[in-house]
Amino acid sequence: MANTWFSCLRCALRREEGQSLVLAIGLCAVTLLTISVVLAASAVNLKARQLLSLADGAIVAAVDEFEFVADGGAPRIQLTAQQVQQGAQRYLADVGAAGRIDNLAIVSVAVLPGGQGAEIALTGTVTPPIVGWVVPSGIPITVHSSARTVLSR
Description:
Number of strands: 5
Low-confidence stretches: none
Strand order of the largest sheet: 3-4-5
Structural class: alpha+beta
Shape: rod-shaped
Radius of gyration: 29 Å
């Protein structure tokens, strides 16, 4: 009886049916997981670069909202945070930025010392493809950009 049991066990170990199928399924699962992670990281990187491009355009457009002030014999540029905010909002509306980035918002606007430049921070969210259900509210991204206007003759 023990001999019969051992012979059945030996026969079962010799047969390798189905074992390679489990390996193939595991390999496919790991491959699909790797592809989905790479796609998600690429999507976040792409949206971050797109948001940075929007921030660069918005701050350049906003800095052009300066006022020229002639104090005696020394002309200078005067720029306020309100001018920068309005210029950035106008630019973002003109290029349709809200349609490209989810939850787009201007986080902060600051005028550089001397009033000749400004800084802006924009934020938005990205919903990665395939694994978007893992982060249903999206991945927040924030970018900062600055620009300066200089008078020259």
